[in-house]
Amino acid sequence: MTTTSQTRAKDLVREVELSIGGMTCASCANRVERKLNKLDGVVATVNYATEQARVDAPAGIDPADLVAAVEAAGYTARLPRPADENGPDDTGDREAGPDDPLRTRLIVSAVLSVPVIAMAMAPALQFTYWQWVSLVLAAPVVVWGALPFHRAAWTNLRHGAATMDTLVSMGTLAAFAWSLYALLLGAAGVPGMTHPFELTVARSDGAGNIYLEVAAGVTTFILAGRWFEVRSKRRAGAALRALLEAGAKDVAVLRTRDGVDHEERVPVDRLAVGDRFVVRPGEKIATDGVVVDGSSAVDASMLTGESVPVEVGAGDTVVGGTVDVGGRLTVRATRVGSDTQLARMATLVEDAQTGKAQVQRLADRISGIFVPIVIALALLTLGFWLGTGAGAAAAFTAAVAVLIVACPCALGLATPTALLVGTGRGAQMGVLIKGPEVLESTRRVDTVVLDKTGTVTTGRMTLQEVVTADGVDRAETLRLTGAVEAASEHPIAAAIASGAVDEVGRLPEVGDFRNLEGLGVQGVVDGHAVLVGRPSLLDRGSQGLPADLAEAARVATEQGRTAVAVAWDGEAKAVLTVADAVKETSAEAIAQLRGLGLTPVLLTGDNRAVAERVAREVGIDVGPATVIADVLPADKLGVVEDLQRRGRVVAMIGDGVNDAAALARADLGMAMGTGTDVAIEAADITLVRGDLRAAADALRLARRTLRTVKGNLFWAFAYNVAALPLAAAGLLNPMLAGAAMAFSSVFVVGNSLRLRRFRSRAS
User: Fold this and answer.
1) Which residues pair with 284 in a beta bridge?
2) Beta strands in 583-667 (DSSP E)
3) In angstroms, rounded to a whole number, what is the distance separating the alpha carbons of residues 220 and 142?
4) Residue 289 to residue 281: CA distance in whole angstroms
């Protein structure tokens, strides 16, 4: 496509973002998406996790039409308000909003439900008017506590759909309505009434049976699961906020008055293209630009993933959000606001999260089939008993019993209990699983993409090797070199100084210290004039490296390591090698991942020599498909997408801002807990202890938890299927129903508790 046609196509399409309200599950997001996509020329993607819809629409479309389409589907929608209307705390208020009322609803429902359940299950607590006290306590739970489920069920009904909400609403209302009938018009309201403690199968008219504990208990159980889900879901947008907050907040801009430059501290959003600004050591660079004066080392690992700082000087480009770790720089801004690389990375993360397929909850998927079957069976039961002349009371009793026994008590516990136990055990092992939708991805993963820096390696420069000339003492070399490097702020210098301290102890003082821009440092230690820096620095001083040291420097460079030359008293004495060290546990972790049937792929922003050296150390096959080097943040995202297009199910393990978009787009994102907040928030699983072996533990635990959830769901529905014929036959004794329901719940909880015995394989 030509540039002109690209511009014309862009003019014909506009991007609109909508905030969607009222969604309770992934199927709701799918329904909204389908409704929007029915509009002419509209392509929409709805993200249940962030409650956002991204719409590509014809330029002439009225956003009100998009909002109307969403509302026609039964949900709410609004355009994001401008920042100046939101106020500084609008985002935070909006995030906290869904959580607080739901938590209040859960707490109130739990407090009211506990005595209702206790009185129903323990005959000793059934005092003279216990049933009326139960009604008073259960009514607010069923009417107000379960209101979100009733609303969602009504929305589903209007659109011919059924989800877990439909089943919860139908079951709780049926149980409550029949209890009201039995109390007000039947025999259940008489003083001294108790549930008969007998496990018999007998036909009755239901006039003495109440099911208030079912209605209140199920509501509370499902509210608890929903609250945990909402807490996890509302964190999804935190990755974007953390990424945008990674930049500088204010900047020292140079203003020229009377021919003299003066520094003026202003907020970053007031920067304009062409402005000159000052960056001091330790400060973040405010925006993308070009260095016009000064030289320094810039830590760009946040964006590039490279562990070695980049040396910059006049004419070099720098990126906003990176850190000046060396000297003072004067930079001319070339991009500001949404055009900066940091802002574009935020867009990449947002796009990746929006486009990521959401796994529909298993319970919803099953409910979509089960609910219509239950309703049909209840109607058939009613018709059958009326047709046989059994009477309206007996027919209605049997039909309502079908609805009551289908109420998902065990189903409500199936996912939350397994997730609670599984994630609790994971937390003890240093593995945090964000939610139930994460589990299904772990079963299908066949490829694991590993970021190198900070994941497979330590992410810190360390002293690796010391090669000395003939007759030169190693300890003396480290003592003199470390003393000079300790006076420098450069990360490579810090690595050498730290390594020297570890080996020789306290370092002597340095005098006449001088930083040689972009080349190295020099100083006087114990009367020796010491020179430390690039090998080319010694050549400039006619102190060139002898053949053995030059060979050591060449080999280090070929292996992707940094060679630092050392000379004192006018002679080259040693070459020190500095590199990002591989973690001790990485090779074992790779072996465990292979044992799970995964193909490891190493991905890095470093050069290929570094990447291949690390791959060989940890046991990753070296090849173009398994070792991918020299990649930028957008390229990391592209690698994941390319693997997915080739049919791979991809897990991504990373730790930096530069990994966030790839983590969000991968089928399963795992972040090292020692990494950045952005990576952690964008990932599905966090490996708290920063040990790569935890990734294998996480996959095994998640798969085990998923199997437990599925087992729980099977037995929960098996109970319903087994009890439905008794209910339809009018033979469902309330005590038998209660015992069966209690047994199914106990079984589900016991099955989930087995996850506590899961053991890590980390040695």
Assistant:
1) 323
2) 599-603, 627-628, 650-654
3) 9
4) 17
State the Cα–Cα distance between residues 669 and 650, nearest whole angstrom: 9
As a whole number of Å, the CA-based R_g of the chain is 33
Signed CA dihedral, 678, 683, 684, 688: sign only? negative
pLDDT digits (tens, 9 = 90+) for 618-631: 999 888 888 998 88
Quick check: 15 and 56 in contact, CB under 8 A?
Answer: yes
Q: Using alpha carbons, list the distances in angstroms from residue 382 to 276, 388, 393, 726, 728.
A: 81, 10, 10, 14, 9
CA distance 516 to 311: 12
User: 249 in helix, strand or coil?
Assistant: coil
Which residues have a catalytic role annotated?
451
Strands 528-533 and 289-293: unpaired
Q: How confident is the model at residue 116 (pLDDT cuts 50, 70, 90)?
A: very high
Q: At what angle do helices 130-140 and 164-184 cross, to 10 degrees?
A: 150
| Cα–Cα distance list, 641 to 348, 593, 621, 666, 752 (Å) | 12, 21, 21, 8, 35
CA distance 465 to 361: 53
**608 vs 235 pLDDT, higher one:** 608
Residues 6+ apart with CB under 8 A from 230: 98, 99, 102
List Cβ neighbours of 6 (8 Å cut-off, separation of 6 or more): none
Q: How many other CB atoms are found less than 10 A from the CB of residue 124? A: 7
- Torsion sign over Cα 46, 703, 644, 348: positive
pLDDT reported for residue 143 = 94
C-alpha 708/C-alpha 153 separation (Å) is 28
Q: Per-residue confidence at 142, pLDDT binned at 50, 70, 90? A: very high
Angle at 63 between CA 60 and CA 69, to 5 degrees: 115
Through-space distance between the first and last CA atoms of the chain, rounded to whole angstroms:
56
- Rounded-to-integer distance, Cα 128 and Cα 542, Å: 105
Buried b (16+ CB within 10 A) or exposed e, 22-51: bbbbbbbbbbbbebbeebeebebbbbbbbb
578 beta partners: 463, 562
pLDDT band at 108, cuts 50/70/90? very high
Angstrom distance (rounded) from CA 525 to CA 482:
10
Three-state secondary structure call for residue 180:
helix
What is the distance between the alpha carbons of residues 37 and 58, in angstroms, rounded to a whole number?
12
Distance CA(35)–CA(22), nearest Å, equals 15
The region, left, alpha or beta by phi > 0 then psi within -120 to 50, assigned to residue 630 is left
Contacting residues for 588 by C-beta, under 8 A, at least 6 apart: 693, 762, 763
- pLDDT over threshold 50, residue 348: yes
Cβ(670)–Cβ(653) below 8 Å? yes
Distance CA 159, CA 101 (A): 27
pLDDT, position 222: 75
Among candidate residues 296, 304, 286, 198, the one with its CA nearest the CA of residue 248: 286
Instruction: Please say if the pLDDT value at position 596 is more than 70.
Output: yes
Label each residue of 517-585 as H, E or C: CCCEEEEEECCEEEEEECHHHHHHCCCCCCHHHHHHHHHHHHCCCEEEEEEECCEEEEEEEEEEEECCC
Rounded CA separation 719/745 (Å):
10
pLDDT given at position 3: 41
Name the E strands within 156-295: 250-257, 260-267, 276-279, 289-293
DSSP 8-state class, residue 268: G
